[in-house]
Amino acid sequence: MAIAEVLMVLGVDQTKASAASIPEDRFCEAFDELEILLGGPEVGFDLALDVVHQGDVLNYNGVKLEEYLGLARLVAGKLNYQTEQTGIFYSIESLRSYLSEKKERGLDFSKLKLARYRLLQDHPQSIRYLDVLIKSGELTIGDSEHWTMHKADGPRGGQICKSLGEQINWVYDDLELPRPRFKINHGQKKIIVNEETRGLLGQIKEYTSQR
Questions:
Q1: Helices 24-37 and 41-54, packing angle to 10 deg
Q2: Is the C or the N end of the chain the one with fewer CB within 10 Å?
Q3: Whole-model pTM?
Q4: What are φ and ψ of residue 55, in 5° steps?
Q5: Beta bridge partners of 143
Q6: Cα–Cα distance for residue pair 126/44, rounded to 1 Å
Q7: Whether pLDDT at 114 is above 70
Q8: Contacts of range 14-20, beta carbons closer than 8 Å, 24 or more positions apart
Q9: What CA–CA distance (Å, rounded) separates 168 from 153?
Q10: pLDDT tens for each residue of 62-110
Q11: Average per-residue pLDDT in the chain?
């Protein structure tokens, strides 16, 4: 089945379907990825279909398509893979515009409720955990490790990873950002954060050092 026929089955206007530049196999791959980026099978299909109907993705091929998908992955991650704002994904320009506006808006770190974060306290263990997460994005906890502060009891072993994950979510909540994706490997007692979270923690460290 030619790409135009595939698109018309999906309800795309015949004129737009006939003018599509994207090869059939790449369209199927790109559509499947958009479906995942926009929320997964339950909600992502209809949202991805709207992007195809209203956006410019059918005009992309080769380098342009890869650029579009790269930007879409980045934006979807920032939106925590949950959004109904399909207009953001209509084109390379709309994706760039979203990222540019987000950067210009900046972040108000004064919103952080610093007292509730063990991770951001001036304590040797907290400083080490924060530095490791910023530098490598991965932190492994020892079996007998105990995160005590000022003689107060605290999490031990793998529970430290869980506590760190909760605090990272709180940071995003305080800053009114979509919660990030991170991975906790309970068997290895390891937490892994993404590049965006590493960068944000680095900015927060700089902010707290200037207070």
A1: 130
A2: C
A3: 0.52
A4: -95, -170
A5: none
A6: 39
A7: yes
A8: 16/58, 17/58, 19/58, 19/59, 20/58, 20/59
A9: 20
A10: 889 999 999 999 888 888 787 778 899 999 999 988 887 766 567 888 9
A11: 85
